[in-house]
Amino acid sequence: MDNINRSGGIDVDALIHALIDALTRPEVIALLAINLSPLKVLSRPQVIALLGFSKTTFDRLEAKGLGPPKIKLADRRIGYVAADFQAWLDARREKRAA
Q: Which of 33, 40, 69, 70 could form a disulfide with 82 if both were Cys (CB 3.0 to 4.6 A apart)?
C-alpha cells in the first residue's frame, strides 16, 4: 500500500496528498457542488431526519403553519428547497436568540 511507510506505520503526508488529489478532481468538485446546491430539493423524510423530529411532531408543526416552506412537485409529491429550509432554520435560531 502506498500510504504505509518503511516502519509499517501510516505515512500521513502521503495520505493527505492522496486525499487532496482525489478531492480536487474536476468530477468530484462537480458532484460536491450539486450536492451542496441551495436549489437542491429535500424530501419530507430528509427534512424530518435533519430536524431530528418524529413524523407526528413534524405534522403538528406543519398543521400550525410553522413548518418550513414547501413546494408542490407533483399531485402527490412535495419537497423543500434546501435554501428555503436553511432560511427557515436561521429564522428560528434568530427568534430564540432574541
A: 40
> What cell numbers appear for 10 in the block?
501510516
Q: What angle do CA 91, 57, 89 make, to 5 degrees?
A: 15
Domain with 80 in it: 41-97
- Taking the CA of residue 49 as centre, how many other CA atoms within 13 Å lie in the half-sphere pointing to its CB? 5
92 and 68, same domain (yes or no): yes
Cell of 11: 505515512
Same domain, yes or no, for 93 and 45?
yes
Query: Which residues are 86's β-sheet partners?
Result: none
User: Do 7 and 25 have their domain in common?
Assistant: yes
Q: Convert the pLDDT of each residue in 34-47 to its tens digit.
A: 555 777 898 999 88
